[in-house]
């Protein structure tokens, strides 16, 4: 039995969950080892219910939304809007209108940078971000800073890649307009104390934008109790379809933001002289949206909510704690990220002696263990680690301790191929 916030939690049965994922249960060729998928931080696998929801949409009621008066268009519209309600209740938004469907986290952050940022940032205004950020929560701010004359200051890291909170406090004294921070690091798995960061940002007069790409899939998020101004996340990392994502924003902020893209669906009235814009969320959903994908995301979220986000987080922490212990036995392995398991997510990034991380990943693949190698869109962070790249294993709801065993066995093989142990 695990605990979260000292409440007992009934453990998940990952083996049963695994049966819901067709890709993890494909027939094996002779002598092939079972497939171990450890790259959910890049994109998760999809359960049958999500695949079936997409299939159902395209087979039965594929139609554009908000326009047609015929019944399949009305059905598609109501399912699309129902998905928005599901998203809103998943993150406890005050209203579904605070949830904008986008393609992914990247688009959500760019939307805020290009609309709120362009309207509100001026020369010498300060944006506070961190060295942990994925490029998606870094480059959009650099772009808008260059355009507006705003500056960016980055919270440095401790030696085990947690945010240096004393340095953050000092930066807040410079009265930033915005704090743009990741909830959970995709590079090293650090889980940031977002409630505390949001409270401090607000006390300093700043808004907070949280990159939830690696948290929304893995732990409970309540945007009201955390008091977040903006939250961005990707559906494809949380069992949903590719091309589905969400920007949450407080209604009063979204209402005051100009549109991101112009076109169909986002207008109130168009004349040759000018245009007035629709209310949110339509104002930010120009053009034909990914209808089936949004509906599929709703189904994915219902699947996650049925399992329970607190149970999912507890499950991952257990599997990762097991993995960290088992990995400690691999000669030459350096693991990055917080030493305290309670401050880690399901991401485990490492290097193995001098073996190039891509070579390690290729050897793991030869054992049918899928991981990722590279800079993980975290170049400043990887530079800070003093390496060119890392190999990253990321665990999710369908992973079990035996997946960690397979990872460890494959790493021993890498060591023996390179003559290290
Ligand atoms: C922390 C974090 N932020 C942002 C992103 C970008 O997500 P997407 O490619 O879905 O826009 C990722 C993807 O890996 C991520 O891990």
* Low-confidence parts: 1-5
Indicate the proportion of strand residues: 15-25%
- What is the count of β-strands? 17
Shape, per Cα inertia axes: globular
Helix segment count? 14
Major sheet details: 7 strands, mixed
Distance between the termini: 37 Å
Averaging pLDDT over every residue, what do you get?
A: 96
- The structure class reads alpha/beta
Radius of gyration: 22 Å
State the helical fraction: 25-40%
| Strand order of the biggest β-sheet | 4-10-9-8-7-5-6
Bound molecules: pyridoxal-5'-phosphate
What does this protein look like?
There is one protein chain. By secondary structure, the protein is of the alpha/beta class. Helix content is 38%, strand content 16%. The chain has 14 helices and 17 strands. The chain has helices spanning 14-18, 48-60, 71-90, 105-120, 139-148, 165-172, 194-203, 223-226, 251-255, 291-307, 309-327, 357-366, 379-385, 401-417; strands at 2-4, 7-9, 36-37, 99-102, 126-130, 151-155, 178-182, 207-211, 230-234, 245-249, 267-270, 275-277, 333-335, 347-352, 369-370, 372-374, 390-394. The strands form 5 sheets. It has a 7-stranded mixed beta sheet, sandwiched between helices. Strands 13-14-17-16 form a 4-stranded antiparallel beta sheet, with helices on one face. Helix 2 (48-60) packs antiparallel against helix 10. The protein is globular. It starts with a strand and ends with a helix. Mean pLDDT is 96; it is low at 1-5. Bound molecules: pyridoxal-5'-phosphate. Pyridoxal-5'-phosphate is lined by residues 41-42, 104-106, 134, 136-137, 182, 186, 211, 213-214, 234. Pyridoxal-5'-phosphate (PLP) binds at residues 41-42, 104-106, 134, 136-137, 182, 186, 211, 213-214, 234.
């Amino acid at each position: 039995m695990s605990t979260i916030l000292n409440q007992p939690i009934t453990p998940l049965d990952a083996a049963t969950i695994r049966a819901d994922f067709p890709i993890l249960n494909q027939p094996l060729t002779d002598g092939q080892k079972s497939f171990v998928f450890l790259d959910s931080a890049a994109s998760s696998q999809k359960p049958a219910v999500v695949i079936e929801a997409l299939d159902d949409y395209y087979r039965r009621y594929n139609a554009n939304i908000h326009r047609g008066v015929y019944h399949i268009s009305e059905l598609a519209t109501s399912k699309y809007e129902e998905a928005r309600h599901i998203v809103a209740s998943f993150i406890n938004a005050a209203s579904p209108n605070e949830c904008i469907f986008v393609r992914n986290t990247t688009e959500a952050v760019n939307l805020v940078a290009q609309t709120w940022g362009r309207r509100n940032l001026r020369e010498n205004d300060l944006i506070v971000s961190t060295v942990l950020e994925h490029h998606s929560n870094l480059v959009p701010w650099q772009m808008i800073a260059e355009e507006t004359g705003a500056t960016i200051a980055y919270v440095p890291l401790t030696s085990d890649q947690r945010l240096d909170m004393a340095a953050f406090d000092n930066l807040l004294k410079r009265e930033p307009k915005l704090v743009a921070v990741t909830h959970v690091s995709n590079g090293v798995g650090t889980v940031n104390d977002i409630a505390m960061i949001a409270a401090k940002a607000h006390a300093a007069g700043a808004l907070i934008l949280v990159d939830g790409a690696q948290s929304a899939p893995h732990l409970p998020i309540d945007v009201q109790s955390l008091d977040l101004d903006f939250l961005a996340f990707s559906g494809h990392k949380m069992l949903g379809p590719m091309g589905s994502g969400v920007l949450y924003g407080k209604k009063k902020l979204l209402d005051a933001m100009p549109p991101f893209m112009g076109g169909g669906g986002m207008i109130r009235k168009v004349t040759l002289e000018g245009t007035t814009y629709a209310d949110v969320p339509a104002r930010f959903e120009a053009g034909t949206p990914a209808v089936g994908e949004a509906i599929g995301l709703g189904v994915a979220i219902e699947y996650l909510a049925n399992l329970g986000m607190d149970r999912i987080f507890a499950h991952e922490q257990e599997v990762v704690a097991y993995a960290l212990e088992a990995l400690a036995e691999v000669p030459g392995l350096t693991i990055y990220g917080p030493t305290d398991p309670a401050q880690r997510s399901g991401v485990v990034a490492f290097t193995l002696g001098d073996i190039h991380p891509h070579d390690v990943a290729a050897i793991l693949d030869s054992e049918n263990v899928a991981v990722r190698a590279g800079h993980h869109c975290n170049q400043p962070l990887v530079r800070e680690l003093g390496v060119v790249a890392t190999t990253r294993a990321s665990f999710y709801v369908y992973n079990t301790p035996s997946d960690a065993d397979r990872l460890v066995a494959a790493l021993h093989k890498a060591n023996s191929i390179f003559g290290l142990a």
